[in-house]
């Protein structure tokens, strides 16, 4: 399980501020919208929902029927939850920390054959191209949600950030491949 940074509370409050949701729909929305910069597991979501209810920041509402006949509890944010979310939004964000294993491997690249690194970079390029496409699809989908009176303008901005990040990482990998290939040619 990923380390709980204490931010799960605010992620879920933000999701509930949009509309009442189940734990499942929160997880799916996070996977689609935030996967380029944030993850939450079911093991974080459900205990956090229970804690929000205990703190009076969310309330369980009707059970949304599922195809299998069972119901899932839908949660809504309370006024106290909106205040808590608003207060957190006013705080300065923590300094971001990124971790890319590929950067470690490239950094230690003198310890392997250039072809190994070129293969890693090619995979990284493909992965980032796919992620750019996914972010662009989300931007398009959120435009469709606006037609249903669900405003995702600010979420579109986070997806746009994903487009820029993944495009930059792809472009870096293309350049890194060129440099490594040239270096290999020089040593031949």
UniProtKB/TrEMBL annotation:
One Pfam short name: PadR
Residue span, Transcription regulator PadR C-terminal domain: 98-179
Recorded coiled-coil stretches: none
Domain Transcription regulator PadR N-terminal as annotated: residue spans: 12-86
SUPFAM superfamilies noted in UniProt: Winged helix' DNA-binding domain
Alphabetized InterPro entries for the sequence: Tscrpt_reg_PadR_C, Tscrpt_reg_PadR_N, WH-like_DNA-bd_sf, WH_DNA-bd_sf
Protein name per Swiss-Prot or TrEMBL: Transcriptional regulator, PadR-like family
């Amino acid at each position: 399980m990923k380390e709980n940074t204490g931010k799960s509370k605010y992620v879920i409050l933000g999701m509930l501020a949009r509309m009442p949701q189940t734990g499942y729909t929160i997880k799916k929305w996070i996977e689609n919208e935030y996967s380029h910069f944030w993850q939450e597991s079911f093991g974080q979501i459900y205990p956090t929902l229970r804690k929000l209810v205990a703190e009076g920041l969310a309330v369980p509402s009707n059970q949304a029927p599922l195809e299998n006949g069972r119901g899932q509890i839908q949660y809504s944010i309370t006024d106290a939850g909106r205040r808590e979310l608003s207060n957190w939004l006013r705080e300065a964000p923590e300094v971001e920390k990124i971790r890319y294993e590929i950067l470690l491997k490239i950094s230690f690249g003198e310890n392997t054959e250039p072809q190994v690194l070129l293969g890693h970079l090619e995979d990284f390029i493909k992965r980032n191209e796919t992620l750019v496409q996914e972010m662009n699809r989300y931007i398009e989908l959120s435009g469709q949600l606006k037609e249903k009176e669900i405003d995702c303008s600010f979420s579109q901005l986070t997806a746009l950030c994903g487009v820029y990040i993944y495009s930059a990482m792809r472009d870096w990998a293309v350049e890194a491949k060129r440099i490594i290939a040239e270096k290999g040619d020089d040593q031949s």
